[in-house]
Amino acid sequence: MFNTNTEKKMPITFNVVPKKNPQQPDNPLKYYANIVGEGKTTLADLAKYAATVSTVSKADILAVLESTFSKIADDVADGKIVYVGEYFTLQAGGSSEGKDTPDEVSASSIKSVKTIFRPGKMIKDALKLATYKKKE
After folding, report:
1. Full-model pTM
2. What is the pLDDT of residues 59-81, one digit of tens each?
């Protein structure tokens, strides 16, 4: 496990967005905080970081990460629920067209497929400690 306690934590950025209540469109607008992504972390960034806190090279770590995420993708595509420790779970989900009888439901009834991501304890705990800043 990586110890991230010594890393400087950056606040999560949000902007302000006006929204109408669709149930009461004549009511005045209300303003909400909308969290926005800032920056990015790549697989190479993860491997570089892991190399700085371990005795394993960046290239070796990158090879392990690539093969791990490839296996995760294959298993999700096979319909498995993939548990990644206390970090997260992934599985396939989707929506389908409604039919009048069970016999009418088939694979062609499936209209969209998505990935369902569920954060685990480690990510939930990290978000509880997050700070926030308004985008300038």
Report:
1. 0.74
2. 999 999 999 999 999 999 999 99
